Every structure is written in structure tokens, then in C-alpha cells.
Amino acid sequence: MDIPMVGIAGVERWNNPPFLPWIPEEFYPQSIYPEAKSVIVIGLPVPLPVLETSPSIYYRELYKTVNTLLDQYTYRLANFLTDRGYPSIFVPRDGYGSIQVLLENPIAFFSHRHAAFLAGLGTFGVNNTILTPEYGPRIRFGSILSTAELPQDPMLETELCTRCMRCVKMCPSNALDKEDYPSGLTDKKACSSYSAELNKRHISPCGICIKVCPIGNDRAVYKRDNAAIYEDKDLFDNYHKAWKHVRSYGGKL
Asked: Which end of the chain lies in a sparser environment, N or C, as judged by fewer CB atoms within 10 Å?
């Protein structure tokens, strides 16, 4: 199915928190689907050159495309397992109705980030996202709760975040703290409020904190090793002109 990243975690990993504070028990997979034995997490990358135009209609459409594929893949895989005698259910990539809902209650009913972490796909960064060796934080996750008892993948032991603080410095809503996760948490109200404003202009989501992160082999693939590309407009003038062009169309200025 051309899914580049897959990880598996047994539900018992939620019962043995690798750090504190941990997510409440009602967010555990077995609290949502009591029969669950394994959580299968898939990841789809967010191509960096498109993300670099954010906020823009281009990134908005990419975000929607990745989300649609995540839901379709996890739905199909859950049915595949169910048909073979292992009842399974998919968890949609987002567990909320709209940005306006997030302003009132900025929490989804299941955390794909924690599932991806426990399934060995990455580690948390200062920006509160999961960083992966392949794509840094430029990846979105979907999960399947399955009754199949599957072999677990080892969790990553190496912390990937370099604490460069680019995400903190360049966050347009000042929503990030300099402390490591989970000591430093995202100001969800500030982040959601900024997203709501972008949504009115049809160019949400923001994506800045994952765009500027230096982690990920994708930076070398797209020849974006120099993170100064987002700040030095003189040295990277052709890129900034391209991003400005894209941002000038398809949304409200």
C-alpha cells in the first residue's frame, strides 16, 4: 500500500509510562476498545517543499490529502485484519470536529503521537510533536486498535531533538515552551487561536514548527540542509520568491 512507516506497540506499554506526567488512563487504547491487544501506527510524510509555502492553500490541500489517505489506509487495514479473524478498528487521524471545537476543548480522544512514540517510530521534540529519523516532525500518523497480538517494535532509545529552539523562536503564536516535553507543553489556546485566524483565510494549518525543524533525512533529500533558508532572504531569494508567489493565491490576504 506504499505506506513508508509502520510501528506496533502492545497495549501494555501504556500501563508503564516511559516518562511523567503521562496521559490519563481514559486515553489508553484499551479504554477505548477494551478488546485491543496491539496498536498499529502508520505514518505518511508531509513533503517539505510544499510545507515551506505555509501558511498557504498549497499546504492546506496537502494536509487534507494526507489526512484522507491516513483514514483510508487505517480503515482498510482494520477491515483486512477483521476479515481474517482479528477484529480491529481504525482511529481517525483527528479526533475533533473543527478548530472552533479545539478552542473550547483542545484535546482529542486518542493521541496518535503517544502511540507513534510507543510503537518506536520517533521521539518527542520541544515542539511537542514526534520527530522521526526519516522525516523529522513532517509526518502524520493514523492508528489501528487490534485484537491481534502482534510482535512489538522496539522503542527508539536515542533522543532526536537537538534543542536548537528554532521551533520556539519562529512560532508565530508564541505557543511553545523551551522546556522538553512533557515539562514544556504547547499553549493549546494560543496555537488554536492562530489556526482559527488562518482558517478564516482558508490557509490553515500553520506548520511553522515542523517546517523549521532541522531533524530528518528528508532535508538532505530536498537539499534543505541549511536551516537558515527560512530566515536569510538574501541568500535564498529564489526560494522566498517562490513561497511568496504561492501564498499570494488561493486564500484571503
From this structure: C
Would you say how long the chain is, in residues?
A: 253
- Reported pTM: 0.94
- The phi, psi pair for 38, rounded to 5°, reads -135, 155
**Structural domain spans, the chain:** 5-247
Using alpha carbons, select from 140, 126, 142 the residue that is nearest to residue 212.
126
Q: H or E segment at 93? A: none
Which pLDDT value is given to residue 75?
Answer: 98
Render 130-190 in DSSP notation, one character per residue. Answer: EEBTTTBT-EEEEEEEESS-PPPPPPP-S-------HHHHH-TT----SSPTTTS---HHH
pLDDT at 155: 98
pLDDT (mean) for 120-141: 97
